[in-house]
Amino acid sequence: MLRRTRIAALCAILLTPLAISGPAGNRTQSAAQPAPSYTYRGTVHAVNASTGTLDLITGVGMSLRLVHMSAGPAVHTSAPTAGLRMADVKPGYIVTVEWHRTSAGLVVDRIEKLEAPAR
Q1: Which domains does the chain have, with CATH numbers?
Q2: Which of 114, 57, 55, 47 has its CA nearest to residue 87?
Q3: 46: pLDDT confidence band, cut at 50, 70 and 90?
């Protein structure tokens, strides 16, 4: 009888973490909770205004990364008077890009042109 009690207790101890950490389910973000926003700072490598895509070279540690993003028609600029549209962004510009992740890929929310440091 004592042996069965010990086996039952051991099984309960070993199976408790499995029961607690069950599947999280399909958690979707509601309309009230916006997608998290991220920021990249880098140099524009290529822009295609007709398709609304942007390739950005950014530094990650001691290496460089080329990030491909798409921009919708409602991309905000740093200042409303600046008038920086996707068609105005040129390769070589140093920019800060705020973006969020979607099922279609990375989507640009805002682009801010930075001034190059004086040499």
Answers
A1: 38-114 (2.40.50.140)
A2: 47
A3: very high
Helix, strand, or coil (residue 76): strand
Query: Could you give the C-alpha distances from 15 to 1, 8, 73, in angstroms and in order?
Result: 21, 11, 52
Q: How far apart are CA 67 and CA 40, in angstroms?
A: 9
DSSP 87: G
pLDDT (mean) for 66-87: 67
The beta strands (E) that lie in the chain are given as 38-48, 53-60, 63-77, 94-102, 105-114
The pLDDT confidence band at residue 110, using thresholds 50, 70 and 90, is confident
